[in-house]
Automatic annotation (TrEMBL):
Pfam families: NERD (PF08378). This is NERD domain-containing protein. It comes from Neobacillus notoginsengisoli. Residues 38-152 form the NERD domain. InterPro entries: NERD (IPR011528).
Length: 305
């Protein structure tokens, strides 16, 4: 088994994290942010299970694809020689009810999006995309409810849902699926990975301006802004975590680039954005080392390589 494409936090989740920490979020955005974190944790948990598979398959995680103008997102795609597993991971928690193809929190009218609709749509799009690439592999879709504290009452037995108690057997099935991959399958995986987009067109972030946002570096571990720089190390006053100052600066630079993609990255703006780095030289050296410098003197700025 090979991971062809690894999972990373989405741009939306990272941007919401920055905004949450630097200006706070309204209730609906905060819920969206916490849901994204929870979903991501579930997906990472599932990655931890698939990484132990020994079968001959290629795993592509976390794909954002587009076909015929329609975006679709895939949590996990597993390519075997004669079939494809399409997997969506849900980290829902608590008691829920399945009623007339709708999903409710038990005892309330609160309706969740039915993951069945999502995965069926995804299957159709993927099928068309594969056809356009000259492939006709059958697709096996599954929605995995990974949280052991999740129950879904009254689900018809033929829905492609799997619960935590069924996961070991499902993983065994994945492992025992006969497969002999060829170079062509690897080309397909490469092609699909190359079509992955990093930014969704459907992402809606709350409005923000540079002036509104709290400046400063935060701890990568506990997200506290109570950090200080000592020699070449950033030290957290809350959890005592240490991070090389260059790494902390670059983390802040990537965050700035994500929030303000149109803005020029200059030493001065990063100095202000980081807030706590005492030496301009230190910022200059870090930017020079990791980014590409454009222009000279006072008008110079940096771009991502
Ligand atoms: Zn900390």
């Amino acid at each position: 088994m090979d991971f062809y494409k690894k999972r990373t936090p989405s741009a939306e989740m990272l941007a919401l994290r920055s905004l949450y920490l630097r200006m706070g979020l309204a209730d609906s955005d905060r819920n969206q942010y916490f849901n994204l974190i929870k979903g991501y944790q579930g997906e990472v948990l599932f990655d931890g299970m698939t990484k132990n598979l020994t079968c001959d398959c290629i795993i592509l995680n976390d794909l954002l694809l587009s076909f015929g103008g329609n975006e679709f997102q895939i949590d996990t795609l597993m390519i075997y020689s004669a079939l494809i597993y399409l997997i969506d991971v849900k980290n829902f928690e608590g008691d829920h009810l399945y009623d007339k193809e709708k999903l409710y929190r038990l005892g309330s009218d609160y309706e969740l999006k039915n993951p069945l609709n999502q995965i069926q749509r995804c299957e159709t799009q993927l099928h068309q995309m594969l056809q356009s690439l000259g492939w006709k592999l059958p697709i096996h879709p599954s929605v995995i409810f990974i949280n052991p504290d999740f129950t879904l009452y009254q689900t018809p037995i033929d829905r492609p849902f799997l619960y935590r108690s069924q996961l070991n057997r499902f993983l065994q099935k994945l492992n025992q699926t006969p497969s002999k991959l060829t170079a062509k399958h690897w080309q397909l995986a490469e092609k699909i990975a190359s079509l992955h987009q990093t930014q969704s067109k459907n992402t809606k972030l709350p409005a923000y301006t540079y002036g509104q946002l709290k400046k400063g570096n935060f701890c990568e571990k506990c997200e506290s802004f109570s950090v200080t720089v000592k020699d070449r190390t950033m030290v957290c006053g809350t959890c005592e975590h240490k991070e090389p100052v260059g790494a902390a600066i670059m983390r802040a630079v990537r965050e700035f680039g994500l929030l303000f993609p149109g803005e020029r990255l200059t030493t001065n703006i990063i100095m202000e954005w980081c807030g706590i780095i005492p030496s301009k030289k230190c910022i200059q050296n870090t930017l020079g080392k990791h980014l590409e410098k454009c222009g000279v003197g006072r008008g110079s700025y940096y771009v991502f390589k």
